[in-house]
Amino acid sequence: MTHATRPLIAALVAFLLLIPALPAHANDALRAVVAQNMDQIEKPSRRTVGPLIDQIAATGAEGVALLGAWADRRLGLSTDGRVLIVDGDIVTDAVTGAPVPGADPKMLRPNSGVRGVIESALVASQISDPDPAIRSAALESIARSGTADHLAALTAAAADPDPTLQARRDRLRTLLTIQHDDDSATRIAAIESLGGDVGLDFRAVLNPLLSTRQIAATAPPEGANIARELSPGDDALSRNAAYDLLKAQGIAQPRLTADAQRDALAAHIADGAVGGIPVADLSDPAARDRAYKALEATGQVTPAATEAEAQAAIDAHRFYEVYAEPDSAVTDAATAAQRSAQTRLLAMRGVDLGLDALSLASIYFLAAIGLAITFGVMGVINMAHGEFIMMGAYTGYVVQGLISDRTLSLIVALPAAFAVTFIAGVALYRLVIRHLAKRPLETLLATFGVSIALQQLAKNIFGTQARPLTAPGWLEGAITVNDVISISTIRVAIFVLAVLFLGLFLFIMKRTRLGLEVRAVTQNPGMAASMGINPDRIAMMTFGLGSGIAGIAGVAIGLFAQVTSELGQQYIVQSFMTVVVGGVGNIWGTLAGAGLIGVLSKVIESFNPSNTLAAQTFMILFIVIFIQFRPRGIIPQRGRAAEA
Amino acid sequence: MTRKPLILRNPSILIVLAVLAGFTLTVTLLSQAYGSGVIPTSMIKVLGKTLCLALAAVAMDLVWGYLGILSLGQMAFFALGGYMIGQWLMYARTEAIVAASMAQNPIPPTPAELQTGVANQIFGVVGSSDLPLVWSFAHSLPIQLALVVLVPGVLALVFGWLAFRSRVNGVYLSILTQAMTLALALWLFQNDSGFRGNNGLSGLQNIPGLEGVGQARLSVWFLWASALALGVAYLLAAWVISGKFGSVVRAIRDDETRVRFLGYPVEGFKLAVFTLAAMMTAIAGALYYPQAGIINPAELAPIASIYLAVWVAIGGRGRLYGAIIGAVVVSLLSSWFTGGRAPAIELPFYSVNWVDWWQVLLGVAFVLVTLFAPRGIAGIVDWLGGVMPPRRHGRDLGPDQGALQEQEAKA
Amino acid sequence: MRRAERVMIMTKFTKILMMTSAMAMAGAAHAQDGEPIKIGVLHSLSGTMAISETTLKDTVLMMVEQQNAKGGVLGRPLEAVVVDPASDWPLFAEKARELLTVSEVDAIFGCWTSVSRKSVLPVIEELNGLLFYPVQYEGEESSKNVIYTGAAPNQQAIPAVDYMAEELGVEKWALLGTDYVYPRTTNNILESYLKENGLAEDEIFVNYTPFGHSDWSKIVADVVALGADGKKVGVVSTINGDANVGFYKELAAAGVSADDIPVMAFSVGEEELSGLDTANLVGHLAAWNYFQTAESDENTAFIEEWQKFTDESRVTNDPMEATMIGFNAWVAAVEKAGTTDVDPVLDAIVGVEVPNLTGGTAQVLPNHHLTKPVLIGEIREDGQFDIVSQTEPVPGDAWTDFLPESAVLDADWPGKDCGMYNTETESCVQVQSNY
C-alpha cells in the first residue's frame, strides 16, 4: 500500500463509521482509535507506538484481543481497510468481532521491537492469568524490560500458586525495587537481600547504579555523588586523557596537530614561502615548526597551546569520577554487594572456562581416539582419518533424512556410521595400506591421495554446502548452574561419549582376546604369528575398529558443528597433534594430549577474546615447539618398542 | 685421480638444460611481444609460473628424494619468498602513487606524512593506517631481495635445528612440518600480523618503474628469469647430490643411524640440504607471485605442500628431472581439467564433468602411483635407459624399514 | 542410505544435464544475424566458493537465454563464455586475462569474495575491461572498469544497525565476524559510526574467528555476559558461510532467543539457512537488498523463471538480484551507446535505471554503485524471511563517511574521471584502484 492511498482508506473507514447497520456490540472507542492510527498500525515503530498501544488497551477486551493478535502476527488488513484478526481459518473483524468469511487479508508484520512493547503493555493483566505458561511468559517479558508500572503490578498481584513462578516473581520484584523504588532505604534493603548473588540480572541492575563519568573541576562539585578523585597520570586517567577531558569541557585549547599546522601553513603561502621559509623546504618537520613560529610572531595564526600550558591546565584542575546515581547510600550498598560477589564471580568464570576446555578436550579426544588405535598402537599412519570422521557425519545426515524421529535416527546413525567407516577402513587397509607395510612415508602419501579423492567424492554427492544434522530435543539446550556456569547438553553428551570410548578402548585392549592379540602383534609380529595369530587379520580388524570409532566421532561432531566435506580436514592436523603430543602407543597419552590442547586453547583464547585465530595460531606454535623438546610426547613409550 | 666434470658424469643435466633453453626460445618466438603471437600473454604467464613450480619441485625432490625428509611445509618457504618480494612491489608502487598525489598539495609532504599516506593506501582496506613493524624495510628493493632468501632460510635453519637436534624423524617430522605451515598460514590470516590478512598482497604484476613496459613483454621477461633460475638451481642441486656430499646425503636417507655411527655429523648435513632447499623454494616463490599477481595465506595451506609432494611422487622422486616432469605435467593437466575446457565424458547414465571429478582422479592416480610405480613417470626413462637394479637375491637394498625394497627396485 | 545417495546423484545428474543444455542454448545463435556478442562468466564452479558462485553462473546463463529469446542485443545474439577460477584467487586474474585477450569478451560478470575482486582489478584496469560485481562488499573502492551491483556498507550495514538501535533498542553491540577483509572493514566502519553516535569503547565487543570455525561456546558466553550492565545486547554478524551453522546451534543451545539478544546477519541468506534447522532461529535478522519473499510482480516472475530454468526447490537470493540488475543495466547501456565497446558503454551506463525485484528501480550512479532499498528480514520457521522493514532506495557510497581518511574521498567517473577524488585538496588521488 502506498502513502498516497492511505488517507483515502482512512477516509473510507471514517465513512464506514457513519453507516448505522452495524452489530450492536461494536467497540466504538476502538474503532475511532484504529481509524485515526492506520499508518501506525500498518508500519509501527518501537519508539512511537507506545501511546497508541495504551489507547487501544484502554478500549477494553476487544482492544486487548487486537493487541494480542497484533503481537502474534495474526493481524491483517482487508482490501477495504478493515483490521482483521486471523485465527487459523477463521477471520474476524477486530473492531466488531464479526466473522469475515472469504477475506484475503494482507498480514501485518510488526517487528520484534514493537511486539516487545505490545507484550509489555499486556503483561499487567497476564501476571494473574490462570495459564501458568502465560504467567511465565509475562514474567519473562518483565525481566526483559521492566518499568515502574510493572513493579506496582507485581506488588499488587495475588500470590502465585506455583512456587517456582512465585520465586521468580519475588526476585523480579526485588530487582525492580532496586531500579524504580523511590525510597532509598527500601532499595538498600533490596540490594542487601541479594548480596553475593552472581546472577546476570542482578549484575545488570547493579552496574547501571555504579556507572560513573569523569569531570574536571577546580573544586569538588556540589551535591554530586563522587566515587573517587583521580590524579592525572595514573592508570585510570592518563595525562593525555585528562587534557582531552579539559578540552571536551571547553576549559583548554586544543594542541596543534600536524594536519592543522600543515593547513595553517598552506593558507599563508606568500611568494613561494611561508614565514620566510621556502615552500620546497617544508618537507622537513623542523622547518614547518620554524615557519609556524614565524607566523605566530607576526600574529597571522593563533598561538596553539604549548606543552607547558597544557601541563599547567591539568595541574590547575582536579578530576573526579561521579556516579550517575545521586544517592550515595545506594551506591555504597551496591558497591558492597558487587564486591562480595566479585570473588565468587571470578571463581565461577574459571569453572566455566574449565568446562569449555574440558568440552574441547573431549571433542579432540573423540576425534583422535580412532587415530590413537591406528597410528598410536599399530603405527599405521592414515591421513584419510579425517575423511572417515566426515563419512560418519554424512551417514548421520543421510539416516536423519530417512528416519524423521531424531532420537531413533541418532540411535540408528551411531552403529550405521560405525559400520560404514569400519567397512571403509577395512577396504582401505586391504587395498592400500597392507601393500605399503613398513613404508610409513608412502603410506602417508597414499592415504593423502585417498583423502583428496574422498573429499571430492563427498562434494560431488552432497554438494559443498553444509548439511543439517540436528540433535534430538533432549540434547538441545544447556545445563545451566547459574548465569555464569553453563554448558550445552550436546557437549556434555560428547564428553560422556568420549569417556565411554576410553572405557571401551581399555576394555578391548586389556580384557578381550582381540586386545591381547593386538598387543602381541604390535610388540612382535613374528613371534605372534608363530603363536598362531594371524597378524594381517588382527591389523585389519584393529584398523577397522579405529576407523569405525572415527565414524561415530563424526556423528557427534556433526551434531554440534557443521557437516561439510571439509569437516575432516579441520580435525586431522589437531588429531595427529593430540596423539603425538600425548605420546604414541598409549591411550592415556592421547587423553593427556587432548587435555593439554583443550586447556591451552581456552586459556589463550581467554587472554585475547577478540581474536580466536590468534589462539589457534599460538596453540599450534606451542605444540610445534613442545614436540621439539619432548619428541616422544607427554607419556613417552618406553622399552624396545620406542626404538622402532 | 682426476674426476670427470659434473656434467659429463650426469648427461641428464645437459639434456634438461638443453630442453629448457629450447623451450624458452620457442615460447619467446611464439609470444606476442617478441614473436608471432601464437601464445597469448595469459599462457606465457602460466608457463612462467609452471617453471617456478618446477623449481620448487626440484627443491622438494632434494629434500625428499635424496635426503628422505618428506617435508609437508615446503610451500611455507615458497609463499614467504613471495611475501617478501610482494612487500617491496606493493610499497614501491603505492609510494609512487601517493607521492604523485601529494605533490599536488601546496606544501611538500614530510617523510612521515608520505609514509602515513602509503600505509593508508595499503592498509586502509583492512582498517588500519599504521605501517606495521614487518614493513620496515619494504621501501628498499635490495633488502627485500635479501630477505627473500634470508627469512625462509633462517626459518628452515631454526626449525630444522630444533627438529633434527631432538631426532624427530619420519612421519613425525612430516606432521611437524605440516603444523609449521599451518601455524604460519593461520598467523598470516590474521589482520593483526600486518600482511593484510586474507586479502594478502595484490597487484604484484605491476612492477614499479616498469609501468611502460606492458604485461606482454614483462611476462616474457619473467619467463626468462624463471627459466634461468630453474637452470641454475638444477645445476646446483645436481652438484649437491653428486660426489661425496651427495653420497652422504643419500646414505642418511637410507640409514641415518649407521651414517651417524660412521662419524658423520648427520644433523649438519640435513640442516644444510634442508636450508638450501628452503632458499631455492623461496626464490621460486619470489618469481612466481609477480606473475600470479596476488598472494594470500591460502597459498600456504597444508594442502598446497601436499600437492607439491604429489607432483614429485608422480614425476618420480630421487631423480631431479622427475620432479620437473611431475610438476609440469600435473600442474598443467590440473589447470586444463579444472579450467572447464576439458570435454565432459558422456556416459549413458551419467555425465562425468571434469571440474567435479578431476580431484578424484588425481587422488586415485596418486594412490596407484604410490602402490605400483614408486618411481613415477621418470621410471620410464630408467626403463628406456636400461638401468636395472642390482641383483641382491631377495635381500633388502637397505636395512631400514623405510629403505627401498628389492620388490620396488625392480618395479 | 544407499537409496538416499542414489536420489542425490540423480538430482545432481539432472542438474548437470540441464546446465549443459543451458550452455548449449546460450551458445547457439537463434534467428538473429551477425557475430555473437561475447560476455564472460567468471564464477568459481569448483572449490569452496562453488556453492555460492555456481548459482550466479546459472543466473547469467538464464539472463542470456532470456535476452536471446527477446532478440539479443543490437540485433546480435549473446554468447556466454564460462570459465572456472576454482576458488583460487590468483586463478581469477589469470582467467580474467584469458577472457579479455583470448575470448575477447565485452563484459564480465563475476567474482564473489573481495580478494577475488582485488585479484582481478589490475587485469581489468590494464586491459580496459568491464566487470559487474554482484555481491555486498566493504566499499572503499571505485574502479573505472567495475560496476558494483551489490550493496556498499551504507546500503546494508549502517541501516541495519540503525534499525537495531531504533526498533529493537539495542544499546550494546557485539560485532562478530570471520577474520577477513569484509568483516574487518565493515566492523571498522560500524565501530566508528557507533562511537560517533555516542557509544563508549566498552560498549562494543569485537571478535574475529577463522573460516569454518566450530567451537562457539566461549564466544556465545562472552556475548551473553555483555548483558551484565543492564543494557540490551545486539549481535551484528559478518560470520561467513559454514561457521554460521555452529554459531546458531550454540546460540540456540544457550537458550538465547531473538528477543533477548537479536542477531543481525549480513552474510546469511536463503541459501545458507538451508544448512540449518531454523526452528530455533526464528526472529533473528538479516539485512539485504532483496529477499525471496519480496512482494512484487517482477519477483514472482523472476522466481518462476528461475525455478523453471533450474529446479523447483531452488531459492533466490540477493546476489542473484544484483546479477540480474547488472545484466539488464549493461544491456540497456549497450543499446543506448549502440556499441559494446567499453568506454562508450561506461559513459552510457551512468544514469541507466532498471527495475529491481522489490518493486522499485535501481539506478547506476556516477560512482559506479547503484541505488538500492535496504530490507530487514526476520527468519521464519520455513527458512525464508519476513520483511519487517524496507527503505526507499539508498544511493551507494563508495567511500564511507564514517572513517576519517575516506570521508573526504569521492568517486565520480563521468564528471571528474576519478574514482578516488579528494574533495579537500580537490585533486584525484589516483586513477587506478588501490588493490
Automatic annotation (TrEMBL), chain A:
GO MF term set: transmembrane transporter activity
InterPro entries reported in the protein's UniProt record: ABC_transp_permease, ABC_UrtB_bac, ARM-type_fold, BCAA_transport_permease
Say if the entry is tagged with keyword Glycoprotein: no
Q: Where are the transmembrane segments?
A: 357-381, 410-432, 484-509, 538-560, 572-600, 612-629
Q: Where in the cell is it found?
A: Cell membrane
Its BP terms in the Gene Ontology are:
amino acid transport
Q: Which UniProt keywords apply?
A: Amino-acid transport, Cell membrane, Membrane, Signal, Transmembrane, Transmembrane helix, Transport
What is the membrane topology noted in the UniProt record heading this document?
Answer: Multi-pass membrane protein
Task: Offer a single GO CC term for the protein.
Answer: plasma membrane
Q: Coiled coil: which residue ranges?
A: none
Q: Where is the signal peptide?
A: 1-26
Against Pfam families, the record matches this protein to: BPD_transp_2
Keyword Transmembrane annotated: yes
Major location, coarse class? membrane
NCBIfam families associated with the record:
urea_trans_UrtB
User: What family is this protein classified in?
Assistant: Belongs to the binding-protein-dependent transport system permease family. LivHM subfamily.
Name of this chain's protein? Amino acid/amide ABC transporter membrane protein 1, HAAT family
Organism field: Paracoccus homiensis
UniProtKB/TrEMBL annotation, chain B:
For this UniProt record, give its keywords in alphabetical order, as a comma-separated list: Cell membrane, Membrane, Transmembrane, Transmembrane helix
* PANTHER family with a match to the protein in the record: HIGH-AFFINITY BRANCHED-CHAIN AMINO ACID TRANSPORT SYSTEM PERMEASE, SLR1201 PROTEIN
Write the protein's name: Amino acid/amide ABC transporter membrane protein 2, HAAT family
Topology versus the membrane, per the UniProt entry?
A: Multi-pass membrane protein
Q: Where is the signal peptide?
A: none
Q: Does the keyword Metal-binding apply?
A: no
Q: Which Pfam families match?
A: BPD_transp_2
The answer to whether keyword Transmembrane helix applies is yes
Q: Which organism is it from?
A: Paracoccus homiensis
Compartments, as annotated in UniProt = Cell membrane
Q: Which InterPro entries match?
A: ABC_transp_permease (IPR001851), ABC_transptr_urea_perm_UrtC (IPR017778), LivM-like (IPR043428)
Gene Ontology MF, one: branched-chain amino acid transmembrane transporter activity
Q: Where are the transmembrane segments?
A: 12-34, 46-67, 74-92, 141-164, 171-189, 221-241, 262-288, 294-313, 320-337, 357-385
Please provide, in alphabetical order, the Gene Ontology terms of the cellular component aspect for this entry: plasma membrane
Could you tell me which CDD domains the record lists for this protein?
Answer: TM_PBP1_LivM_like (cd06581)
From TrEMBL, chain C:
Mind telling me which SUPFAM superfamilies this protein's record contains?
A: Periplasmic binding protein-like I
Which CDD domains does its entry note? PBP1_FmdD-like (cd06355)
Keywords per UniProt: Signal
Signal sequence range: 1-31
Q: Name one Pfam family in it.
A: Peripla_BP_5
The UniProt entry, under NCBIfam families, shows:
urea_ABC_UrtA (TIGR03407)
The molecule here is called Amino acid/amide ABC transporter substrate-binding protein, HAAT family
| Annotated source species | Paracoccus homiensis
